[in-house]
Design goal:
This protein is of the alpha+beta class and 204 residues long. It is 29% helix and 30% strand. It has 5 helices and 8 strands; from the N terminus they run ββααβββαβαββα. This is GNAT family protein.
């Protein structure tokens, strides 16, 4: 399968749909919840810039750089976030899952676990990846705990890796799941979705 394809991925808690401008209104409302867009250690789009952000992600997809999805919550059918395949390297059969944000009302519900299971299943089972990477801000403790809870292992820390939009520097914590770990990770995530989820918020 083409690494740049954007299939619709459907799970019990959420559906990942190819990102489109028609998602802009609901996504703007989602990112405005509890002023999510103002959290200093994450970079979700601002509500008023949602259409521009969608257009930016679609342009990057056209350029072969990313694969963007909107996250639609199954319980009420609303678009409540975004997630993306980044750093796509088909020749090395690896990619990164990132630029993810989820509305506060959907956090701690198991939705993020369901979304990651859909993405990881697509990456490992459909695209035959040998590794999937995650990156997050050193100070985003919730995201770091959430990524570790998926079964990813920490590879290291890239210091002064990004210049943040407020002028500060971001140290990037790198995690990954490799091919040999995937069967156990898949089983673990599947079992977690059978039981109530801890209240762990994530935006990475």
């Amino acid at each position: 399968m083409d690494f740049l394809s954007i299939p619709t991925l459907t799970g019990a808690l959420a559906t990942l749909e190819p990102l489109a401008l028609e998602h802009a209104t609901e996504l703007a409302e989602a990112v405005a919840e509890n002023d999510l867009h103002k959290v200093w250690y994450t970079r979700p789009p601002f509500p008023e810039g949602m259409s521009a952000e969608i257009e930016n992600r679609l342009a990057k997809h056209d350029a072969g750089q990313i694969v963007p999805w909107a996250i639609r919550r199954a319980s009420d059918g609303r678009a409540v976030g975004m997630t993306t395949f980044l750093s796509i390297r088909p020749d090395h059969r690896r990619l990164e899952i990132g630029s993810t944000w989820i509305a506060p009302s959907a956090q701690g519900t198991g939705l993020n676990t369901g979304v990651k299971l859909l993405q990881l299943t697509h990456a490992f089972d459909a695209l035959d990846c040998i590794a999937v990477e995650f990156r997050t801000h050193w100070h985003n403790q919730r995201s770091r705990r959430a990524v570790a809870a998926l079964g990813a292992k920490q590879d290291g820390v890239l210091r002064n890796h990004d210049l943040w939009r407020d002028g500060t520097m971001r140290d990037v914590v790198v995690f990954s799941i490799i091919e040999s770990e995937w069967p156990t990770v898949k089983l673990s995530l599947t079992e977690k979705l059978r039981t109530p989820q801890p209240n762990v918020k994530t935006n990475s």
